Amino acid sequence: MEHSIFIHILSMLVIAIVAIALLRRMGLPAILAYLLTGVVSGPSGFHWFTQLQMQSVAELGVVLLMFTLGLEFSVPRLWAMRRTVFGLGSAQMIVTALVAGGIAMLVGQNLVAAVVIGSAIALSSTAIVLKLLNEQNWLRRRHGELSVSVLLFQDLAVVPLLILMPLLANDGTQMSFNAIAWGLLTGILAFLGLMSFGKWILPRIFDEVARSRSNELFVLSTLVVALVTGAFTQWLGLSMALGAFIAGMLLGESQYRRQLEADIRPFRDLLMGLFFISIGMLLDFNLVMQYWWQVILILVSVVLAKAMIIYGLLKLVGENGKIALSTAISLAQVGEFSFVLLALAVNYQLLETEVSTVLVAVAVISMSIAPWLIRHSIDIAKKLTGGHKKPQNEPLEVNLPINDESDFVLILGYGRVGQTIARFLKTEAVPYIVMDLDPTRVTEARAAGENIYFGDACRMALLKKMGIRQASLVVVTFCEPRQSEECLAVARKLAPEVKILVRTRDDANLHELKEAGATQVIPESLEGSLMLVSQVLFKCGVPLTRIIKRLESERRNHYQYLHGFFSGTETDFTLDLLHAVSLANGASAVGKTVADIPWQTLDVELRAVRRRGEEMDPPPADWILRRNDILMLVGKPRSIEKAEEYLLQG
């Protein structure tokens, strides 16, 4: 028996490999290959597994899928796009769910089933849309930004839906408002409790795990935390997937996020595939063939209705017709989290098997045609809208003061490279202005007195307000090639004579950037190699003039000696955090000298102190700290948090 199960699992994996290879050649997503594998392995195919085994696999897949979503969830990104996320996103979800749920009730479904159906149809595929928008270089375009905003809210909306599912199961025909309100309150309290646990206890646990320097222990601890939090929320009468999502959020906000992503990445796609295989097993092909005309009718209705609703909402807020229509076409499909809701609805007996099977078939087909629709969304929008209207001016994120200075450096992007350039410019008293799209980083830098503004460097109106035409030099520091190319094109159009330096990780896009107008392209990894080579040659006795000549020759010849190597795995290192602490009136550190603060115990470094616009770098040991001093601290996030608490509260 055990040998037979092993053969079945092995056969299922072989089918998955073949299906993925074939569908990828056809340009279709891997999700469809997993669903097809489930169909072949389930009751409609060879019937290798029982219904109980399918449900167990499906539940585990949901838990792991929600955990990976929580790990990748970005609060700063959500806050940066809050207007469109909570405005457009909530409107799309509510209107679509009401329309779909209302139609479901008209055709004979009860209120509970209508809620499930409306919620499932309102969701779109985050994985497919983001992947294709990125491939088409459309993420920075207006319709790409709108699509991402809606998808972000849909991912958030999954959380209350996970809370709602077990509550609906408690009363199959009538929904008690008090029960739902109590369940939502329980979910919020559980969320707050787990967040407190994640802030005060979880970091200490992972500090100890990290000190062991064992990857196996790190991954195992992560999975245990996910399952324990899932069991806790299930004990409260909520969904286990909700606990896994919160666990992923807690770990995603910690200093170990990069390490967790690196460790879990090899398993992530496989675990998601496991869930979609289980969904495919629940798809009964006999029922699909029996209700084939209903499947086609519902498919056409869903795609058209979702597109019309999104288009109408965008036109209502004044968006250009072409942008509104291309956004609507991109989001017209049913998403992967619809499978999550349908699987839970079947497990909780909220939906009949026939209804669930029809909806799963609709979702599968809609996701199959989604790649073609997204790739041709702009062309379709141009044909339907006439293609002659000029897009309206896009709203600016911030009100930037018009810059009338001249002979300054404009730094676009304030990550590690941008901050390093700014520090050296400050040392040489060269004026500079910075633009960055990370709200947390901008807030931190402005608190430290940096001349930085929040905004998208690819927006023409924003660059014009920043005074790009008066700049003596523009430095583009983005690590994303597509973003650099788009920013470079806009900057060159506005300021044809300005010098533009572009930083890249390597020289893969060197020729394209040069043709787009870059004065000089600096490949980071290759320049680092040249600096190391220069040191090696100098230590070996090669004359300095010969070394400089050799390096310049390499740059002119586009780094020809720095290609054709054996590739290896790149290591991702976690960097220290730079944080500004302002000493308010009554802060514990006011009146103390720098030497009085136990910096070594706090495990942070005092980089500089800014007072009345002047910076002391580094301050002497007898420097007395005063009210309104801004302290620049360097250290790990956890240490920075403890140091700030000590400086302010003692």
Automatic annotation (TrEMBL):
Look up keyword Protein biosynthesis and say if it applies.
Answer: no
Transmembrane region(s): 6-23, 30-50, 56-73, 85-105, 111-134, 146-168, 180-202, 214-232, 268-285, 291-311, 323-349, 355-374
Task: Enumerate the SUPFAM superfamilies for this protein.
Answer: NAD(P)-binding Rossmann-fold domains (SSF51735), TrkA C-terminal domain-like (SSF116726)
Q: What is its main location?
A: membrane
Q: Which family does it belong to?
A: Belongs to the monovalent cation:proton antiporter 2 (CPA2) transporter (TC 2.A.37) family.
Q: Protein name, please?
A: Monovalent cation:proton antiporter-2 (CPA2) family protein
Q: How does it sit in the membrane?
A: Multi-pass membrane protein
- InterPro entries, alphabetized: Cation/H_exchanger_TM, K/H_exchanger, Na+/solute_symporter_sf, NAD(P)-bd_dom_sf, RCK_C, RCK_C_sf, RCK_N
Q: Where is the RCK C-terminal domain?
A: 565-649
Query: What are the protein's UniProt keywords?
Result: Antiport, Ion transport, Membrane, Potassium, Potassium transport, Transmembrane, Transmembrane helix, Transport
**Any signal peptide, and if so, which residues?**
none
Native organism is Shewanella metallivivens
List where in the cell it is found: Membrane
One Pfam family named in its UniProt record: TrkA_C
Where the record annotates domain RCK N-terminal, the positions are 406-523
